[in-house]
Amino acid sequence: MAGEYRFSFGPWNIHEGADPFGPRVRDSIEFGKKLKMYKELGFDGVQFHDDDAVPDMDKLSPEQIVKKAKEVRKMLEGEGLAAEFVAPRLWEDARTIDGAYTSNDPACREYARERSRRMLDIAEGLGTKLIVLWLAREGTYVREAKDSRVAVDQIVEAINDMLAYNSEIKIAIEPKPNEPMDQAYIPTTGHAVAISFLTNEPERVGVNIETAHVILAGLDPSDEMGFALAYDKLFTVHLNDQNGLKFDEDRTFGAVDLRRAFNQVRILDQYDYGKKGEFVGLDVKAMRTQKQEVATKHLANSRAVFLRLVELVRSLDKAKVEGLIEQRDYEELDMLVLDHLMGK
Ligand code: GLO
Ligand code: MG
């Protein structure tokens, strides 16, 4: 069954291990070297922030940006890889301290809109039509600081701006309830789907569901995926895992709760995820304790868990499941799944 799904990750998933409490513990690996690792690890797609592809883009002209993006596309092609999506990094510049599209400062909001247009040029240069919007700082630490009614309009306007700038792109909003903000404006799949219908072209706006973010919102990732699938809006996924309500852990897929991972694979497989070209995207972090030479295991392991779970999903006795549902014997159904996961 391997090979039926195509996998992707972002260069930030191979990282130096810095956290808010301590510096990097591993050496940086330059972008070209990271690209060489993709195929070896079993991956075909590269997820990008705009400045992963074009570093220091704010210092370059639009023409220079496009030129650089096209060079990166050549590098990708040389490795047999494709760009899955581009995301505007709207959370590091000084002009995004108070948010990007929802900043209280109009000049900062204009910076965010302009940066987003440059990001779309990069997507074009890289040859992808998918945009991911993780709205990192669109929210508040202090509720009185912004107007949540106005914030929705501002986000919708920014999305409309992007849809108009490039008529071919699709935008996948990546909801997350908190971190870095205390409260984000688009915390769940439902919010993202709802906001898509306020835009000028709802069918071009969908979601990127990340396992850890859903868990942080106290919800179930497979149910959120089902919701998005019902609206035909599951444009991509960020699979990982998360141990309860704490900082965003981005653990290896399935490492915390194998059954929860099983159910995500189950709904994706059941509804032919990937058949329209969607990648199985990962957003996983190596533990800070990993040594340099083994700091990509989280990627290969997440992929291996996914593929093993595809087998388990397909070998689950469907007739037995249906029979137990008919009898309403959910205790036995519980045990059937547990036995299956335990290899019985
Ligand atoms: C952080 C997000 C982040 C995004 C990435 C792509 O919590 O998961 O990693 O997925 O920046 O926009
Ligand atoms: Mg993510």
Explain the overall architecture.
The mean pLDDT is 98. The protein has twelve helices and ten strands. The chain has one domain (2-341): Divalent-metal-dependent TIM barrel enzymes (TIM Barrel), CATH 3.20.20. The protein is an alpha/beta fold and 344 residues long. Helix 1 (31-41) links the parallel strand 1 (7-9) and strand 2 (45-49). The longest helix is centred in the middle third of the chain and has 21 residues, at 106-126. The strands form three sheets. A four-stranded parallel beta sheet has the order 3-2-1-10. It has a four-stranded parallel beta sheet with strand order 4-6-8-9. Strands 5-7 form a two-stranded antiparallel ribbon. Helix 4 (106-126) packs parallel to helix 5 and helix 9 crosses helix 10. The radius of gyration is 20 Å and the shape is globular. The two termini are 21 Å apart. Bound molecules: D-glucose and magnesium ion. Residues 49, 87, 132, 134, 174, 176, 210, 238, 248, 283 line the site of D-glucose. Magnesium ion binds next to loops.
